[in-house]
Amino acid sequence: NQQIILAKRPTGMPDASNLQLRDGPMPSCGDGEVLVRTIYLSLDPYMRGRMSAAKSYAASVAEGAVMEGATVGQVVESRYADLAEGDFVLAHGGWQQYNVQAGKQLRRLDPADAPISTAVGVLGMPGFTAYVGLEEIGKPQSGETVVVSAAAGAVGQVVGQIAKLKGCRVVGVAGADDKCRHVVEAYGFDACVNYKDDDFFEQLEAACPDGVDVYFENVGGTVFDAVMRLFNDFARIPVCGRIAHYNDTDAPPGPDRLPGFMGQILIKRLLFKGFIQFDYIHRRPDFKRDMSAWVRNGEVRYQEDIVVGLENAVDAFQGLLQGRNRGKLLIQVGDD
Ligand code: NDP
């Protein structure tokens, strides 16, 4: 049972000394449990937080333990009445080939409904994050301008498409020209700006002639500084993530911009609200209904970036924190 364990907490970018591949024991299943063979492991930015000992909204992974993560797999052996060998399931199986779970923790997936990989993508946690962050906090109105960062990623691509369905002008921010082209051509964003360009702010300003009403914040850093200058009165900012800072080892250099930031919040009556998708678990049924229909009829499209082999997971995770992924990042751990 190939596994990746958190051998040592990282400082800065995690590497193979922090996340070690090993051949672990094969688990066996007891009453009410199911043995699952992983097909896809979802790699997500929140995992960087789980590697750290810093206090957060969820417990850290212990040193020496298998890294946690959502998985899509197939039942190999079942001692749980409602699941049978061969069933596909959504699990929290971690970075390993085989895992044992309590049967009641698993959700059966029907490959006839949608490709099973989407259970950890557009129809799963990242899609749900986009849906609730926008609906519950962003509350975009037709004709307003919505900006989303990490626009080509798992969450960002969905945010932009939902905002388009709501009749908004949608402007993406991403770190590569091909990503920007993709969100405009494949997802119908009105514009997308590369934050690595020297004239990023000027391009963003030109793309938002009526200012910014909703900023779906995924990254922080210099992107946030630029969008901040364009907020309209009463703009809403769902604070979903701040990936530009996940590997920070020091406080950013001065000057201290906090007083100016607070001034803008007051003068423009801005609404900043941090959220974790599970805060809105009561919206799951609405999400399932709407997103399944949008995906089925092509109103929401998605891109997956599938890396083959658990042994490549550490490199792929580094890529996620550097913008190498093109869409929702998955590791193909076993055959589908
Ligand atoms: P993505 O698929 O968007 O991948 C991460 C992307 O972040 C990279 O491709 C890269 O794109 C961008 N990025 C990396 N470093 C930087 C940087 N220094 N500055 C700007 N952009 C950077 O990941 P997800 O869609 O899964 O996650 C997006 C965000 O949403 C993350 O911050 C994540 O933590 C957060 N999140 C929050 C949840 C919640 O409940 N609050 C739930 C799920 C995700 P680029 O090329 O554009 O730089």
UniProtKB/TrEMBL annotation:
Its EC number is 1.-.-.-. GO terms for molecular function: oxidoreductase activity. It is an enzyme of class 1 (oxidoreductase). The keyword Oxidoreductase applies. Residues 15-331 form the Enoyl reductase (ER) domain. InterPro entries: ADH-like_C, ADH_N_2, ER, GroES-like_sf, MDR_fam, NAD(P)-bd_dom_sf. Gene3D superfamilies: Medium-chain alcohol dehydrogenases, catalytic domain, NAD(P)-binding Rossmann-like Domain. SMART domains: PKS_ER (SM00829). Keywords: Oxidoreductase. PANTHER family: PROSTAGLANDIN REDUCTASE, PROSTAGLANDIN REDUCTASE 1. This is NADP-dependent oxidoreductase. It comes from Salinisphaera aquimarina.
